[in-house]
Design brief:
Order of helices and strands: HH
Shape: elongated
Strand content: under 5%
Distance between the termini: 71 Å
Number of strands: 0
Number of helices: 2
Helix content: 55-70%
Radius of gyration: 26 Å
């Protein structure tokens, strides 16, 4: 009634040997470094924002505790 096929990973119709022949284009080291610096800048901004959120969360908790004392 139903045609049941096994689940396979990978791309049907192509094998590892064929994948091996595909060119992989990567930016030069200078461009890679520029990209990494750009992303690290955003990582620092995210960490700073997390610190600000944590600061205000702690301030809120302190105020709530003072309200009920």
């Amino acid at each position: 009634m139903y045609n049941i096929e096994s689940m396979r990973s990978g791309q049907p119709g192509i094998n590892a040997e064929q994948y091996k022949e595909f060119p992989v284009v990567v930016p030069c080291i200078r461009e890679q470094n520029k990209i990494a610096e750009f992303l690290m800048l955003y990582d620092r901004k995210i960490e700073f924002a997390r610190g600000v959120v944590e600061h205000w969360r702690e301030a809120k908790e302190g105020l709530l505790q003072q309200m009920f004392v």
